[in-house]
Amino acid sequence: MSPMLDVSDEVRAEIGDAEAAKLLAGETVPDRFDCTSCRTPGSTEDRTSTVLFVGSETAVLAFAHAGCVPSQIVKVSEEQIQSAVRTISGEAAGAAPAEAGAATGAAPADDRQAVLGVTCGQVLIGDQLHPAIVVEPTGPIARPGTTGGGDEFLPLLIEAGFMPVTDMGKKPAQLPGWSVLMAMGKLHAVLQPAEEGQQPTSWWQAHQPLPVTDEWRSTANKSNSVVVYAAPAGSIGQQPREDLMRDALDQAAGRGVLVAATMPLAGT
User: Fold this and answer.
1) Could you give the number of structural domains in the chain?
2) Is residue 94 part of a domain?
3) What's the pLDDT at 111?
4) Is residue 84 situated within a structural domain?
5) How confident is the model at residue 256, as a pLDDT?
6) CA 139 centroid distance within chain
């Protein structure tokens, strides 16, 4: 029995007609798989999407429930795709730290290497839960090309299009060109616009893919968007519970040190 496989035109163009024919005939398709979106088991006897992760040198074909995501290409860095290969092979272990390198277009305000701490949680806006990412540096961030004191983290983000949060009950506006990259069910990066004709670049990128809760992933897949909050060092902290994170966000907004934007979800 041939698998019930969806192969999009863009995936077919990338892998070639011959390989697509093998997939559709069931020659190179497993009977069972872990959905690359919801991470639960699936069977190719049911409708299944082909998801092709493409790096600079490597491509990996994965599978997802057709009800979770459509067949598509997800562009990731080579480092990210190698991590995905390890995950598929069952070699990845342990929870990822919620930190990554300094933001693109910014620099530490002193000699220490400031990194961006990231916390994931769901935030109630009005009467609806939204998946959220809270970004907070471990130290002051200076404007590129400058040295010395001062923290330009919020001014730099406002110049990029983030808006100050004065009311946590209102969903932040969409920020054109930015997106949140998920791959293999984990958080990989926040992407910012690139120069015309170029691929988006990472503004924040995880040292290794960051696990998220099933509830967070489910809400993100349903809304196909993520609310990204950001605040200066020491404003939020790594809160262990969503209610504590919300309290910290409310307090930061009340002090006028919170900015935010809504971004589409890229990948799965």
Assistant:
1) 2
2) no
3) 42
4) yes
5) 94
6) 23
The DSSP element (H or E) to which 36 belongs, if any, is none
Alpha-carbon dihedral of residues 232, 117, 141, 112, nearest 10 degrees?
A: 130
Strand 225-230 to 5-6 pairing: unpaired
Q: In whole angstroms, give the CA distance from residue 141 to residue 81.
A: 29
Residues 6+ apart with CB under 8 A from 90: none
Q: How is residue 187 written in tokens?
A: 């958080």
Tell me whether residue 234 is in a domain. yes
- Which structure tokens are listed for 143? 């404007």
pLDDT for residue 80: 63
Tokens of 237: 């902290």
pLDDT at 228: 97
Structure tokens at 178: 């930015």
Give the pLDDT score at 260: 97
Residue 169, pLDDT score: 93
pLDDT in the model for residue 129: 94
Q: Are 35 and 157 in the same domain?
A: no
Write out the residue range of the structural domain in which residue 57 sits: 5-88
Give the residue among 74, 54, 79 at the shortest CA–CA distance from 64.
74
Which residues in the chain show pLDDT less than 50?
Answer: 87-113
Residue 109 has, within 13 A of its CA and on its CB side, a CA count of: 14
Place of tokens 């799965």: 268
Q: Are residues 20 and 124 in the same domain?
A: no
Q: Give 113-182 as a DSSP string.
A: ---EEEEEEEEEETTEEEEEEEEEESS-EEPTT--SS---HHHHHHHHT-EE-S-TTSPPPB-TT-EEEE
pLDDT of residue 237: 84
106: helix, strand or coil: coil
Distances (CA, A) of 189 to 89, 116, 167, 210, 263: 22, 12, 26, 9, 12
